[in-house]
Design goal:
The protein has 13 helices and two strands. By secondary structure, the chain is mainly α. The protein folds into two domains: about 1-75, no CATH class; about 75-264, no CATH class.
Length: about 260
């Protein structure tokens, strides 16, 4: 359970108690407040239509908080969330099918091997620290912007780029991997979740354009680092991104993504 739910329930309760106090002050008119008078006030408040809007608004707010908490729990795989967040605009725009997220997780585990679990543990620790420090004000953006988290992301991207030295061969392999319908997806060395497939779902559409969309979303930010991030990258990896993986970025630049049907 997150911190927002209990905090909001306290806010609602305080509002009800304030209303009770105001009603008691109006009704008593300076007289001593007896138990009988208090019961009469409470009975009136229970039936008062003045609370209807308050109840509806509070219910909607609680529902939103419960939904957000559920989403945060589903995103407990902090490392996976880190590597997927730059693709969110593609999912939201319908450019990439969300059913591919499991395939992308599998790709990362295949590429990273044991390092995937180490990265997952590191991200979990950072996430816990940030949540402990921020409480209800925690946001995922604060996680993505954390300097240590950025180092994890950059290291993974460099590893992927190194794997794609034979760019065309690896590109075709990646495209084939994205067409595979998986039944389970590993999120750590000893944990996985099951994927339920729609028996009448359309075949997955994934080709060179979709490959370009994903890889540009992953790697284009490396060529537009802020001065602070550029310095951090150079300090961690000994050179700027273009110097470190220039050949890969040149190949990727040949993968246009502006319109459907384009390829690389």
């Amino acid at each position: 359970m997150g911190e927002q739910g209990p905090a909001h329930l306290r806010k609602i309760t305080n509002g009800v108690l304030d209303a009770l106090l105001q009603a008691a002050e109006r009704t008593s008119s300076g007289r001593p407040l007896s138990v009988g008078l208090l019961e009469e006030i409470v009975s009136g408040l229970k039936e008062s239509a003045a609370f209807d809007d308050f109840y509806r608004r509070s219910y909607a707010e609680i529902a939103d908080i419960v939904t957000a908490d559920d989403l945060n729990q589903r995103r407990a795989n902090a490392f996976g969330r880190l590597m997927i967040h730059s693709l969110d605009p593609l999912f939201e725009a319908g450019e990439i099918d969300r059913t591919l997220i499991g395939n992308l997780f599998s790709f990362l585990h295949m590429v990273l091997g044991e390092a995937a679990e180490a990265n997952a543990a590191r991200c979990r620790d950072i996430l816990k620290t940030l949540r402990d420090e921020s409480g209800a004000s925690f946001t995922w953006d604060s996680f993505f912007d954390d300097p240590e988290v950025r180092l994890v992301e950059w290291q993974v991207l460099l590893h992927i780029a190194d794997l794609f030295k034979r760019f065309d061969v690896r590109k075709e392999w990646f495209i084939k991997l994205m067409h595979h319908r998986q039944n389970t997806v590993s999120v750590s060395s000893n944990a996985f979740y099951t994927i339920e497939h729609d028996a009448v779902a359309e075949p997955i559409t994934f080709g060179e354009r979709e490959f370009g969309l994903i890889f540009h979303a992953w790697f284009d930010p490396l060529e537009n680092l802020s001065p602070r991030d550029d310095q951090a990258f150079r300090r961690a990896f000994g050179a700027a991104p273009r110097t470190r993986i220039g050949a890969f970025l040149t190949h990727l630049a040949g993968c246009p993504v502006a319109r459907a049907g384009s390829g690389c």
